[in-house]
Amino acid sequence: MRIDLLRHGDTGRDGYLDGRTDPPLSQTGWQQFAAQTKDRDWKLIVSSPLARARSAAEDCSRRMAILLQIDPDWRELDFGRWDGRERCEIATEPGDAALLEAFYADPAAFTAPEGESWTSLRHRVRRALDRLTANPELSPVLVVTHGGAIRATLSLILGWPLQSLWSLRIKPATRITLEVGRGEDGALWGELVEITQP
């Protein structure tokens, strides 16, 4: 089945670790989202419950008369004590600077203080993908989500290690198109079709 992963549009907070912190889309973010969904056709829209993804997904669902499902498994990683703070600010704090560096060097091994692990994020996204791929007749699907969940999807579907995914810049309103299926053994497989930047 074809899945379009669309990161929510700009919120005006580039450089912040906004996981559960939920700033609204900026005007630019709304324009980016409209441009990335214009003249497209999906049978289903699935969205994270966070407002910066959900509000645009709801609007798109109404305009295009497409069924919308809100799925909490597509929400962003919870950055715990760092959530809502600017990365450069965290990097200046003696207790957190080394942790932040370790987190970006190997996110599978290090978790933000009081935050969610990448393993947990991958499990959530795996559940969400299992639900989608159980209904291939719903293809194509638009998933409106976040940078962390998109990286977890690419790791699961394409086998890319999480460490290498930091080098992939997933700007706000980036759309990544995947062809996803299951082998005879039930394992997920996929191929990258297209990356469209705003």
Q: What would you note in describing this structure?
A:
This protein is of the alpha/beta class and 198 residues long. The protein has 7 helices and 6 strands, in the order βαβαβαααβααββ. It has a 6-stranded mixed beta sheet, with helices on both faces. A hairpin with a 5-residue loop joins strand 5 (175-182) and strand 6. It is globular, with a radius of gyration of 16 Å. The two termini are 24 Å apart. The model has no long low-confidence stretch (mean pLDDT 94).
Shape: globular
Strand order of the largest sheet: 3-2-4-1-5-6
List the uncertain runs.
none
In percent terms, what proportion of residues is strand?
15-25%
- Counting DSSP H or I runs of 4 or more residues, the number of helices is 7
Structural class: alpha/beta
- Arithmetic mean pLDDT: 94
The helix content is 25-40%
Query: How many beta strands in the DSSP annotation?
Result: 6
The largest sheet, given as strand count, sense and whether it forms a barrel, is: 6 strands, mixed
| Distance, first to last CA | 24 Å
Assembly annotation: single chain
Give me the strand/helix succession: EHEHEHHHEHHEE
Radius of gyration: 16 Å
In a nutshell, what does this entry contain?
The protein is α/β, with parallel strands linked by helices and 198 residues long. The chain has helices at 27-37, 51-64, 87-90, 94-105, 118-133, 147-158, 162-165, and strands at 2-7, 44-47, 67-70, 141-145, 175-182, 188-196. The chain contains seven helices and six strands.
